[in-house]
Amino acid sequence: MNVFRLAGDMTHLLSIMVLLLKIHSMKSCAGISLKTQELYVLVFATRYLDIFTTYFSFYNTVMKIVFLVTSFSIVWYMRHHKVVRQTYDRDQDTFRHHLLVIPCFLLALLINHRFTVREVLWTFSLYLEAVAILPQLVLLQRSRNIDNLTGNYVFFLGAYRGLYLFNWIYRYMAEKSQLRWIPWISGLVQTALYADFFYYYIKSWKKREKLQLPA
Amino acid sequence: EEDKEEHDEL
């Protein structure tokens, strides 16, 4: 495993830890999109099906379990925890996320590496992950007050896929890995969706001002 | 083997 891949995984893990910290310590999910979190549950559930069938490494298995358990528990907190769920911005989080699922699935049926159940679901998870942040970005744009933990959560989440791009370049150049257009293009789209957010995040960080996205 | 390389990422 190269340094970009490890850094990417750690940033991903960090983003989830930041979100859980917010939920546990502030007992709040204000500014967090339940729609995005539900999409992540679907992403991980379809991608990590192979946890029961193929063994890669101890690291791989543990990380998959962590991502599955944490994504399910975040959704549980937002839906069912008696304090946390009251902080959910239901009226602002109106993105129709179901509309993202069907096109991603159809695309996975059409464009995949191999037409098997596992491969189509894996591909579907890549396409869906690429756009899963959209409800969250829309919610951030509507929020007047973005607290630090929420801003950092989205920043780390975006940084994770950005680092994966470097990982893929490294693997292609140094490890002579094959051309893998499906994850590369999905990852590029995913990272590009954060461009605007990154711009305002870094700007506010430099000026030490509170993060606010223009409407 | 090819599948293994594809799927070892998270």
Short summary:
The complex is a heterodimer of chains A (215) and B (10). With 215 residues, chain A is mostly helical.
Descriptive notes:
- With 215 residues, chain A is mostly helical.
- Chain A has one domain.
- Chain A contains nine helices and no strands.
- In chain A, helix 1 (3-25) runs parallel beside helix 3, helix 4 packs across helix 5 and helix 5 (117-131) packs parallel to helix 8 (181-193).
- Chain A is globular and about 45 Å long.
- The mean pLDDT of chain A is 96.
- Chain B is mostly helical and 10 residues long.
- Chain B contains one helix and no strands.
- Chain B starts with a helix and ends with a helix.
- Chain A binds chain B through residues 5, 9, 12, 50, 54, 56-57, 60, 63-64, 67, 113, 119, 122, 164, 167, 177-178, 180, 183, and chain B through 2-10.
Strand composition percent of chain A: under 5%
SSE order of chain A, one letter for each helix or strand: HHHHHHHHH
Q: Number of DSSP strands of chain A?
A: 0
Mean pLDDT of chain A: 96
Low-pLDDT segments, ≥5 res of chain B: none
Give the helix proportion of chain A (percent range): 55-70%
**Average of pLDDT of chain B:** 72
Strand and helix map with partners:
The complex is a heterodimer of chains A (215) and B (10).
Chain A: H1 3-25, H2 34-47, H3 58-80, H4 98-110, H5 117-131, H6 134-142, H7 148-174, H8 181-193, H9 195-207
Chain B: H1 2-7
